[in-house]
Amino acid sequence: MSKDFYEILGVSKDASDEEIKKAYRKLAHKYHPDKAGGDEEKFKEINGAYQVLSDKAKRQQYDQFGQTFDGAGPDAGQGFGGFDFGGFQSGQAGGFEDIFSDIFGAAQGGFSRQESGRDIQVDTEINFEDVISGVEKKISLYKRVVCDSCGGSGGEAGSKEEKCSSCGGSGQIRRTVKSILGTFSQASVCPDCNGKGKSFSEKCKKCGGDGRRNEDVEISVSIPAGINNGQSISLSGQGEAGPHGAPSGDLFVTVHVRPQNKFEREGDNIITEEKIKITQSILGDKIEVETVDGKVKMKVPSGTRSGEVFRIRSKGVPHLRGGGRGDHLVKVIVDTPRSLSRAQKKLIKELSEEGL
């Protein structure tokens, strides 16, 4: 069964045109076959999904008929609503020319965008208590950083910057590429100058002209109160340094909360269970409840039944966005004794005879 086009791009069915375009750009950059870690099949799949969802008419047909829409609408028989697979045409498919300009560096005037440093994804663990108060974590990384000898330029001190001999100063290396979308000219970033169009007559001896070197670094990450298990924090510019002075990538820290037995989280509320005696359920009482802020007294009214839930306000998890906190919900369980003394049985029998 074919995948849903919205699922492929990772967007909801009510996503705006801009959200679809942004998601496509991100995925196309990530999976392009010419990039390290690229995936040609995934790249084709992403292109196919974007081709449909970026066109209002095709998207409307797809929403109505699903993946059989090809032969269900006014463009039946033309394949994807008459899209020309032989080459990209101006104004079609929601701005493919603009998209491919971003991906392949094929903008007007010979400009080619520099390749930024790689993004880094790491995991870190925190305790449940840290979710309530927030915590500062130290993350150790071995990554590419800006060369301290050349400052990221890639040139040895005193050497001259001149036109790159590999790309002739254009910053691009062009080649013809065939794909399911047709044949087109692809302009990729020149690997020798990283799109700058210029290189140094003598490369930096410490980094070999790349402008980067590997180093162990420690980064401090502020994990906010209220974060949930599996959520990620993005730190702009804390990924790997880009070659030849290009911008650094980003660091994504995925937070994992260590499991614990006492508290259960549901949204921003905390749920616990407290056992009470039958006499407490009948007569009512005040019981001690352990919360994330310490122990508090909670009133159990007379006639409380097993399974009833009571709310202690603002003793839950802090809201990640905005002020305030969730609540602490206490589920009361009436503890029925397994064995009774003769006197206890006699007393209960007397109460039963009186209709209790």
Compact description:
This protein is α+β, with helices and mostly antiparallel strands and 356 residues long. The protein is 22% helix and 29% strand. The chain has a four-stranded mixed beta sheet with strand order 10-11-15-14. It has a three-stranded mixed beta sheet with strand order 1-9-8.
Can you describe this structure?
The structure is a single chain. The strands form six sheets. A four-stranded mixed beta sheet has the order 10-11-15-14. The relative contact order is 0.11. By secondary structure, it is of the alpha+beta class. 22% of the residues lie in helices and 29% in strands. Residues 70-98 and 101-112 have low confidence and may be disordered. The protein has helices at 5-9, 17-31, 40-53, 56-65, 96-104, 128-133, 278-283, 342-353; strands at residues 120-126, 135-146, 161-163, 172-179, 182-189, 198-200, 212-223, 232-235, 251-257, 264-266, 269-277, 285-291, 294-300, 309-312, 328-335. It is built from eight helices and 15 strands. Helix 2 packs antiparallel against helix 3 (40-53).
